[in-house]
Amino acid sequence: MPLLLSPLDLTALIVFAVAWLAYEPLLKAAARGKGAINTDMTVIRVAWMKNMAGRENRFMDGQLLGHALNSASFFASSNLILIAGAAGVLFGGESTFRSASSLVVINTSTRLVFELQIALVLVALARGLLDFIWSIRQMNYCIAAVGAAPDSEDTATAYGEAAARLLNPALSAFNAGVRGYYFALAAAAWLFGPIAFLAATLGAVSLLLWRQRRSRAAAAIADLRKLLGG
Fold first, then answer.
1. What pLDDT shows up at residue 10?
2. Can you say how many angstroms the Cα of residue 155 is from the centroid of all Cα atoms in its chain?
3. Distance between CA atoms of 125 and 84, rounded to whole angstroms?
4. d(C-alpha 7, C-alpha 170), whole Å
5. Cα 26 to Cα 214: distance, rounded to the nearest angstrom
6. Which residues contact 116 (CB under 8 A, 6 or more apart)?
7. 104: DSSP letter
8. What stretches of 182-221 adopt beta strand conformation (E)?
9. Which residues contact 134 (CB under 8 A, 6 or more apart)?
């Protein structure tokens, strides 16, 4: 790898790999159970499932889960199209490399480096696709759990908590899939040079963290969690 990439390219690639793979565990560790959208939403979803289990009519809950399932399916389909496009470029051969190299804004030294840059975008998209697929499967399990909810007040709380243990990982996987687009865009910035790659990676992480901790949505969700007593 050092023979293929300049020191700056290698540094940018390492920063990207650390940010991409360590973002979620570091966010959880920094949030310590509260103060971020992802962690606060786990409490809200538990409350939702508890209310669902205690309701006589669960049609609305099924509709909401169906909407989330449709969203995940849409993103998974979009991901497949992007993966197909990136794969077409990756396996386009010498003609694709020459066409890309002729562009002034593209900064790539050799065909092998160019293919590595495209492959990184492809891997980021593929990881997101796997997250969406796992999210869809888990949401199907959640729909079955909603349909099987017993009409007993004695078991409503326990059943709701168990259903939430299905729903939270399902929507966490969906969030991970959406986050994959941020890192795929950061990986694509490598085509414009290592400085652009490094800046795009740090920019993506900063934007994600700001939305999780400092955005208006984060403040509103934190207030909702407090009202629910979480």
1. 92
2. 33
3. 10
4. 39
5. 17
6. 4
7. T
8. none
9. 173
